[in-house]
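re: ur question from earlier - yeah i can do the single chain one, its not a big deal. heres the input i used so u can compare w yours
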Amino acid sequence: YDRYQVAYRNLYDQVSASQEEPITSQQNREIEDAAWDEVVNQVLIEQELARRGITVTEQEVVQAARFSPPPDLRTNPAFMTDGVFDLQKYQDFIDNSADELLLLQLEAYYRDILPRGKLLRQVSEGIYFSDPQLWHLYRDANERVQIRYLPLNPDLRIPDEEIEVTPEEIEARYDETMDEFAIPARARVLAAVISKAPTAADSAASLERAQSVRQEIMEGADFAEVAARESVDDGTKDAGGDLGVFGRGAMVKPFEDASFDARVGQITEPVETSFGLHIIQVTQNWGDSVQARHILIPIERTDESEIALLTRADSLEVLGESLPLSEAAGRLDVAVETADLTMEFPFVTNAGRVTEGVDWALQEAAPGDVSPVFETTSGFYALELINREEAGFLPLADASPAIEQDLRLEQKLDMAELEGQEIAQALRSGTGMDQVALDRGLEIRTTELFSRNDFVPGLGRQNAAVGAAFGLASEFSDVVLTANNAYILEVVDYQPADSLAWEAQKQQQRAALTSTAQQTRLTDWLDGLRNAATIVDNREQVFQAVEDAPLSQGFPMG
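and the output i got, formated as tokens:
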């Protein structure tokens, strides 16, 4: 329980520090699940350390403490010299410190982190990227080719009437590929959403505030001082709102127009953009560029509006406990709409991602039940379950049109392959590509230079056509088939990857790939431990026991 609370608090503080808005109930639930996962991983790692007999010696702790300080101590001003971490200052502190608690905390840190480092090295042992592997990856990203090509476009050029697909073929393909027609569990719900977006009254109040700030400057207040106090643009407020020099196209249109229209020194009226309300002063104007500073006033709910919003959400929850959702929402003038929710697509208009709601609808509710009010960053919402469909498979009748289309395309590709072979033979016999295109009513297309990893308009990404472009040994390719088209290719330009540039960055490339591969293997290894373990989530019972325990008794450990 204590370990979970520490993990939860750390994650909660991280999320809270990363956003201005309060943490929503949905975010809180995600934090709780993340803390649970972290504790589970900690336990599994401890079990694995014990199973492997991985320990740490006194000498290893001392050595790490002297030469590998924890990240937070590396940024401690007490150990800095001219803004740079000073290892000698840190070591002098360690050698002479009388703070036994800190030293004990350091020892505990290394006794925890060092065995984990050994475990990571064991888990990731054998990861090595050879020079040929590195060159292959570098080449794929940096070798470039330009081609002309003939797309045969069989699905467009061959009429459906020329293709026969039987019901027996459709049913056979359905049986072979049934997994592709799996459909997830789905809940149909009524949804009532109370948006957190500022109201018209809030916008008016924000405009009034911006005009008041502008008037303060007009009456003699220092622009930079007001910006430091009032602006919510953290990137410029401490610099007096200075945006530097910018040209046309660098800013959103309303801001750009106001900046280039303003006289030098003029304090503009508030200019509204998607970021809020800007009070702008242009300090230089060269015609094609300007230098300006601004104060950004947010368009946000007032305190009174926020209280009204929370009161409305509370009222919806109270009414929903005894009334159908449509009636409860109607009393509060909240619109209700129907939504289909799945775990893969848990979205409701104006509420956004409704993870808590879809969990409730799929796992807890019965038809006719009304949920509590849940919260997202966009709004408050309540649901009423209409019906729920369990996971299953799309019926053959519903899947048949898509299967028939796939089978038709396969036959058309076979026909296109035969045509492509005829075209390739004509090209090898000396007929030019332009003449072949004219004779057969085809269009020649030309690409820009591209690498193996690029998306190529007209060709796609990382498919047979892209690969064939880099493997052409003769002037023209044979017919090249992809999932939905057939091509004849001709190389126009080729730029090999620079082997000297690769050599110069090879070690950094190897280090980056190794680090990524280590993290991937560790993640896969942890997933394997979790899959093999018996993990029981007793949070509900534990938290209930904590709530029920008398304050004088404390947490019941038994």
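The chain has 20 helices and 20 strands. not sure if urs matches, ping me
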